[in-house]
């Protein structure tokens, strides 16, 4: 989940010349007030004041962190200690910045000037109201959907990460204007994180606005889309009008991921994006999981091209991150889809699909019953004006983070600069360790 994935993605998007088809928005960090629509004040207060030093030296702070899923915690499923959400330097700032990206993207859509908005650094779908979970500290998706609801009557959330989008589902169990649909790997035994998202999980009571599509390891493109296409089409028929779509594009569902096994190709993953774009409703694309970073960057770059209607070649262009793609032969599409699944697997998925279609029939009947639905606000708060030059940052269109480092270093080579930086920081680090 390191931010380097996003820098690589941006560098590849730039190398393919895709930035010319987009506006880059200046993004202000989210505020604590923005985060309160998704998280408790107690949890946010802890996040704001938590540092590695306070976690290490203050027992009360450490205990509070553990209660909220931060630092070393006991995994309820396995009984083992984990550190999925470590207490890192500048944690609060990190949370505000990636959430600010998703919030700005949502406001751009709500302002009516854009049809597609993208924040590949977002998509942290596991964070819940009172705590961190699964590498996710703050749930930027919930914050973004709340912003969209200020303008749109109904928002559809679709999750193609390999893991169940539990945090988003839980946040909207009582919200009739939001439907969540998650396609994810599921072992039925609770061992695969987060252990939730069975086919019978349909939301609070019998609302049927939470839809879960559990998939086996090794599903692959063909069987995945035998599920995704028909289910998504029926969802769009039933939950209408879906005025906006949020698609969490977690790339850990790709073949070659370090911890998952759904085995999608880049084209197969992007086919989900193509399908949802075809409905012609405003769409917010967010990142998520993905633990083989060159595969992640390949996928999100290709999906950026899909989102703006561009075709790009398979050969990865020369650019600052070129050598990261050596293991995939410098090709964007490093894995070709395999056809065919076992009869047992196909029959199992047919049963799952029939059950889900029956659930959608129940939802259709419920939505046909007359009811009073709260209308969205007439004007979204702080909507982005596309004519505001202070918000559209054209100056950075052709510059990726590596190039910006070169510029800021002046005439120095990057290697020389980093050596100089190391010599500067080392004495300070020694002094801090002595003071500690």
Give an overview of the whole structure.
This protein has 436 residues and is an alpha/beta fold. Helix content is 41%, strand content 9%. It contains 14 helices and 8 strands. The chain has helices at residues 4-15, 32-35, 41-49, 52-57, 59-67, 91-110, 140-148, 166-171, 220-238, 266-277, 293-307, 343-368, 401-408, 414-435, and strands at 71-74, 81-85, 116-119, 155-159, 178-185, 210-215, 244-248, 283-286. A 6-stranded parallel β-sheet has the order 3-8-7-4-5-6, with helices on both faces. A two-stranded antiparallel ribbon has the order 1-2. Helix 10 (266-277) links the parallel strand 7 and strand 8. Helix 1 (4-15) crosses helix 11 (293-307), helix 9 (220-238) packs parallel to helix 12 and helix 10 (266-277) packs parallel to helix 11 (293-307). The longest helix has 26 residues, at 343-368. The model is unreliable at 378-383, 409-414 and 428-436 (pLDDT under 50).
Properties at a glance:
41% helix; six-stranded parallel beta sheet; Histone deacetylase; hydrolase; globular; alpha/beta; 14 helices; histone deacetylase activity, hydrolytic mechanism; disordered C terminus; 436 residues; two-stranded antiparallel sheet
Which percent band covers the strand fraction? Answer: 5-15%
Structural class: alpha/beta
Q: What is the tally of helical segments? A: 14
Order of helices and strands: HHHHHEEHEHEHEEHEHEHHHH
Q: Major β-sheet, in short? A: 6 strands, parallel
Helix content: 40-55%
> Which regions are unreliable across 5 or more consecutive residues at pLDDT < 50?
378-383, 409-414, 428-436
In the sheet with the most strands, the strands line up as: 3-8-7-4-5-6
Q: N-to-C terminal Cα separation, in Å?
A: 29 Å
Number of strands: 8
Rg on CA atoms, Å: 22 Å
Shape, per Cα inertia axes: globular
Query: What number is the mean pLDDT?
Result: 88
